[in-house]
Design brief:
D-Maltodextrin-Binding Protein, domain 2, five-stranded mixed sheet
Length: about 575
């Protein structure tokens, strides 16, 4: 998830409204800007040196945006822990406008390969760039904070920019406060319980079960909520459409299989489960965390997928394909059905829509529990999708916190979302909104839009998905149906975030072992030859899990969960 792994992801940002889909440790981003060609950002004509760091500005004022006191050129290095992120700052009018306005240029750094390896190497060498953005669930956050490698943004604000506290959300600062009372991160796409009450009717989820529209209708639009109906639909699709443009049909697709499982089924690292949400399985019972991975309904449906594999309805590709390969196959329309985040294939959906509107993917009712309860899909959560930190290596502390304040302010959000007036938006019918030709490109080709305009939060590192509602245009097809299907099915899972132990603790070490064991076991379960083999493999996993300290791990999580419930109750007062 996804992001997670997000964002995308990511439309993307308009669709990314549900990132937290990421709620629950999504290791796919909730929104991904589709890859687009771009060039390196221009170097600034002058950069502030550490000696010029704490500029000679006067005592900062609480009510005035601090960034306006110094708009001299400076370039910050900003690391995004998402190898798929394709865009460069300074290529598009929006980022150029913001640099001209604030003086801040960004050198966006993205890992070429494994994100965690890159981040861990930078942490080990204490060579962190000025800003760092990564998923809130990632262990790197704790390593940087507990290792003393990042600045307290609350301290920086106290010292250099009190205006920060005027524009920052107190609930988010409190949610991420460390035992020392300081806050070191700020989230994007974050919604507090009060936000959920205020905007809940507009909230959508990123979690969908989708089918290719033309194929689904050609086989009679069958009910896929039951095991029998689900398997029969896959069989009918394969029989009627054995090939797609000369390539074999893939009856069912999922997220990537990784070291700790698969977000479409369950990610043991975070106890997040896409499938369990579709089955409306509770995450707690009578105040106690509930192990959904052992729920009879969950196991029943895992066996449905095992049967699908035995019947030749699961392609071997799904076990090895990475996101790039999956996106290529989605754009070709080769999947019949997918248990997949809708914003993660937004660019590919546009490709299909341009070729044939009937070939797009639509959301339908998918796997359900025996009572046919509606799904409880992950909606926005207070943890958000990603968090941003300021390194202690930062070139200029004062400019850094003031730029962060600008980005999270309504002014910064409007600039990031709408761009420059007269270029990407104008006041039309009394409302600030995208120009017609800009909106048309946004709806038709997100990748081209990012490159040509760079607005609509192409650079989503600190986007506020609640604030952007005032400028967000109505959804259009082929995305509207996917969004609308999730409305009324969203749930806030905020209380289950941030409950995992530190990786270096005894419980944390055991949690990693259990998660890695699950990553190996899940494919074996789906590839098992019979239900009896499935039961044996699963029981052996549970036995090993129990010996690896699962009870102690759950006790730790229970304590943190109860603390979260109390903290969230305070936010609601």
């Amino acid at each position: 998830m996804t992001m997670k792994k997000w964002l995308s992801l990511t439309l993307i940002v308009a669709l990314m409204f549900t990132i937290a889909a990421c709620s629950g440790g999504k290791n796919e981003p909730a929104a991904s800007n589709s890859p687009s060609a771009s060039s390196e950002p221009p170097a600034s004509s002058a950069e502030s040196s550490p000696s010029a760091t704490e500029s000679a500005s006067e005592q900062p004022a609480e009510d005035a945006p601090g960034w306006m006191a110094d708009t001299s050129p400076i370039t910050f290095d900003w690391y995004l822990n998402f190898a798929w992120f394709p865009n460069k700052w300074g290529v598009d009018p929006t980022s150029q406008y913001i640099t001209k306005k604030t003086g801040v240029n960004l050198n966006l750094v993205v890992p070429a390969g494994n994100e965690n390896e890159k981040l861990n190497a930078m942490i080990a060498a204490n060579q962190l760039p000025d800003f760092i953005t990564l998923g809130w669930w990632e262990e790197g956050v704790k390593k940087m904070v507990e290792g003393g490698l990042v600045e307290s943004i609350s301290d920086l604000a106290d010292q250099y920019d009190p205006y920060f506290f005027k524009v920052a959300d107190p609930a988010k600062l409190s949610w991420y406060a460390q035992p020392d009372g300081k806050t070191y991160v700020y989230p994007n796409a974050s919604s507090s319980p009060m936000d959920f009450d205020k905007f809940g009717t507009q909230f959508t989820s990123n979690q969908t079960f989708v089918v290719r529209k033309d194929m689904y209708e050609a086989i009679g639009s069958p009910d896929m909520r039951t095991p029998e109906g689900f398997l029969n639909a896959l069989k009918l699709a394969k029989e009627k459409f054995p090939e797609v443009n000369g390539q074999p049909l893939i009856p069912i697709g999922f997220h990537e299989f990784g070291d700790v499982g698969n977000y479409s089924f369950i990610d043991y690292q975070q106890d997040s489960s896409y499938l369990a949400n579709f089955l409306a399985l509770p995450r707690e019972k009578e105040g106690k965390l509930y192990d959904r991975s052992t729920d009879p309904e969950f196991l029943k449906w895992l066996k449905v997928f095992r049967q699908a594999n035995q019947d030749g309805l699961i392609s071997k590709d799904v076990f090895v394909d990475k996101r790039a390969q999956m996106e290529e196959k989605i754009a070709q329309g080769r999947y019949f059905a997918m248990l997949y985040q809708r914003t993660d294939f937004a660019a590919q959906q546009n490709v299909l829509f341009a070729k044939d509107p009937n070939s797009v993917y639509i959301a339908v009712d998918g796997p359900a529990n025996a009572q046919m309860d509606p799904p409880t899909l992950a909606g926005p959560a207070i943890s958000g999708w990603t968090v941003t930190l300021i390194s202690k290596n930062v070139k200029n502390k004062e400019r850094a916190i003031k730029f962060l304040s600008y980005l999270i302010s309504e002014e910064g959000q409007k600039d990031m979302y709408l761009g420059e007036k007269g270029v990407s938006y104008d006041t039309i019918d009394g409302k600030d909104q995208f120009k017609p030709e800009v909106l048309d490109l946004l709806n038709k080709d997100r990748s081209a839009f990012d490159k040509q305009y760079g607005s609509s939060h192409t650079f989503w590192m600190l986007m506020d998905t609640n604030m952007q509602l005032q400028w967000q245009p109505p959804s259009v097809e082929p995305f509207k149906q996917l969004e609308d299907w999730t409305k009324g099915k969203t749930t806030s899972f905020s209380q289950y975030d941030l409950i995992n132990p530190p990786a270096t603790s005894k419980e944390g070490i055991n949690a990693t072992k259990i998660a890695n064991d699950w990553g190996k076991v899940l494919p074996k379960l789906l590839l098992s030859k019979s239900d009896a083999d499935f039961d044996q493999i699963f029981n052996e996993f549970i036995e090993k899990r129990d010996k690896t300290g699962f009870a102690e791990l759950q006790a730790y999580r229970q304590t943190k969960y109860e603390e979260n419930v109390k903290k969230l109750a305070e936010f609601m007062k």
